[in-house]
Amino acid sequence: MKNEEKGLRGRLKICGMKYQDNIKAVAALQPDYLGFIFYEKSTRFNNGIVPELPKSIQKIGVFVDATIKFIAEKVQKHQLNGVQLHGSESVDYCKELKEQLPKYLIIKVFSIKDEFDFSILDPYENIVDFYLFDTKGKLPGGNGYAFNWEILKDYPSKKPFFLSGGIGPEHIEKIKNIDPKLPIHAIDVNSKFELEPGLKNIELLNEFVMEYRGIRGKR
């Protein structure tokens, strides 16, 4: 059975990219998405130019309660393929953003700790392209630990989502055992593969990518 039919699509997003040479080295591992954070309070804030990448890699800009004008400027400047909203962006905000950027992916982040009310997703269902579930913590992302994935058993939607939140090499077995009925579009990794904020450990990432792709081939 194809990955798409089984639920776990096997895509990979590597987020928090910051340094030019490191970006190119990570891109050589051929992830499906690279994430660039445009939030000044983040230690992974990208204030440089996002380099040109292979067309197979989609560039996602990460924003936290930014103005739509600011997002549109970054999308154009860096030739982004999509936008990840990591703040308290409202339904109306997302709708306006989609109207302004109709050709770009919009990913809305929701943070989970010990429980989650999935009914809050309903108003976003026909507006955003994907959800992303991350760990609720002090920071709007990059907190370094995973939430309880068992909560996702109650996920009521068919909309594909990104699974994020402190995912590291130690989660490979857990990823293997994810319920194949869940419409997971991609696994999103960040802080567990860093030498310092924004600087990824290429060797560790490569090992993970190889193991992760092995899972893809078996599903």
TrEMBL record:
EC number assigned by the record: 5.3.1.24
Key word Magnesium present: no
Top-rank taxon, per record: Bacteria
Entries under Gene3D superfamilies matching the protein: Aldolase class I
InterPro entries in alphabetical order: Aldolase_TIM, PRAI_dom, RibuloseP-bd_barrel, TrpF_fam
Ranges where the N-(5'phosphoribosyl) anthranilate isomerase (PRAI) domain occurs: 13-209
Reaction equations catalysed: N-(5-phospho-beta-D-ribosyl)anthranilate = 1-(2-carboxyphenylamino)-1-deoxy-D-ribulose 5-phosphate
SUPFAM superfamilies attached to this UniProt entry: Ribulose-phoshate binding barrel
Pfam families noted in UniProt: PRAI
Enzyme class per UniProt: isomerase
Key words of the record: Amino-acid biosynthesis, Aromatic amino acid biosynthesis, Isomerase, Tryptophan biosynthesis
Record GO terms (molecular function): isomerase activity
Pathway(s): Amino-acid biosynthesis; L-tryptophan biosynthesis; L-tryptophan from chorismate: step 3/5
Homology family: Belongs to the TrpF family.
Protein's UniProt name: N-(5'-phosphoribosyl)anthranilate isomerase
Organism: Galbibacter pacificus
